[in-house]
Amino acid sequence: MNKETQHSNLRSAKKVKKDEFYTQLTDIEKELKHYKDQFKDKIVYCNADDPFESNFFKYFAANFNFLGLKKLIATSYAGSPIVGHQLSVFDIEGVKSEDKKEPMKIEINEVKDFNKDGAINIEDVEYLLKHDANSARTLQGSGDFRSHECIEILKEADVIITNPPFSLFRDFISQLDEYDKKFIIIGNVNAITYRETFKLIKENRLWLGASIHSGDREFRVPDDYPLTAASSRIDENGNKFIRVKGVRWFTNLDYKERYEDLILYKSYTPEEYPKYENFDAINVNKTKAIPVDYDGYIGVPITFLDKYNPDQFEIIGLGISNSGIEIGVQPYKPEHKKYRKEVQKRGAVDGDLYMMEDGVVKVPYARILIKNKRI
């Protein structure tokens, strides 16, 4: 292995370690209940996910028979910390504690009532893993979701469900699209503005999940994770937790609530809804303020997707950067160039929508351009 490859692997490992967030079981349950009829006879793969710590794996293992799964697979990344022994899902016979820090693959094909208590639960899965030497093994590679080994597992799977590293979200979503996989993953709301993500949203091949539409969510983090933010805590067992703002589920599995109409009640007036200087559309600062009677293009916040019904609205494009240029957003006018350095400090470029207020360029945060299909 050459030095460049070694450095690349180290950088990837650091990114993944920094993104080692464990999704809470309650958040997983609230989202996955909307898709429970879509898992029958499916192979579910929880990649980029430590199977010893993952609540995703724990959820599907405990509900293996209830959901009618065909197979459940989980893989972890090299160096993934095994923390919080009381929360570790399994203690597999023949697998030493230190070995668990190596990239692992766990595979389940069936779960029986080993405890003879009349119910299938996580204890039955633990018994299976302890006594089935083929259910858990060390991976040959790093366990990186982009590795050949993990891609081969991905090809076999029907549905990918996990919490991918936020810093590698672009790569992860591109891979899912390349291999045409069904998925339910969790990420930051700003991932909506990534070209890789928005392309799928516009084509109605990706949408936001059913259960999270606002606020922040709590994640458990490794023992060595620095708790510098105010929104963090340590529980009575010494486990660390942080709260992350702007979290959303991203999926291409359908659910009925997605087709509920957004109730509109405001009427359009030029005074309340200014037009952009460089695109023929009005600006709306809050989704609930979309006018009921406007038949042109409308710029709305990215959080509009929390309420987006594809039968009610058409998505025209994204009014930022090159995505904006592609749909006809015009560059700054010569007389506005003097403001450009100031607005570029906030990440604005020629493809960004802007308005004029008292002679000053105002660039709102990323806007999705939509049109009401009902008018």
Q: Could you characterize what this model shows?
A:
The chain is an alpha+beta fold and 375 residues long. It folds into two domains: 3-256; 260-372, no CATH class. 22% of the residues lie in helices and 21% in strands. The protein is built from ten helices and 18 strands. The chain has helices at residues 3-18, 25-32, 55-62, 64-67, 122-131, 148-156, 169-178, 195-202, 321-326, 340-344; strands spanning 22-23, 43-46, 71-75, 104-108, 136-138, 159-162, 182-188, 207-208, 216-221, 232-234, 240-245, 247-251, 281-283, 297-301, 313-318, 355-357, 360-362, 367-372. Helix 7 (169-178) crosses helix 8. The longest helix is centred in the N-terminal third of the chain and has 16 residues, at 3-18. It is elongated.
Task: Tell me briefly what this model is.
This protein is α+β, with helices and mostly antiparallel strands.
Task: Round the mean pLDDT to the nearest integer and report it.
Answer: 85
In helices, the fraction of residues equals 10-25%
Straight-line distance between termini: 61 Å
**Structure summary, number of beta strands:** 18
Quote the beta fraction.
15-25%
The strand line-up of the biggest sheet is 5-4-3-2-6-7-12-8
**What structural class should be given to the helix and strand makeup?**
alpha+beta
Taking Cα atoms only, what radius of gyration do you get, to the nearest Å? 23 Å
Largest sheet: 8 strands, mixed
Helix run count: 10
Given the C-alpha coordinates, what overall shape results? Answer: elongated
Q: Helix-strand pattern, N to C?
A: HEHEHHEEHEHEHEHEEEEEEEEHHEEE
How many independent structural domains?
Answer: 2
Give unreliable regions as ranges: 1-17, 82-89
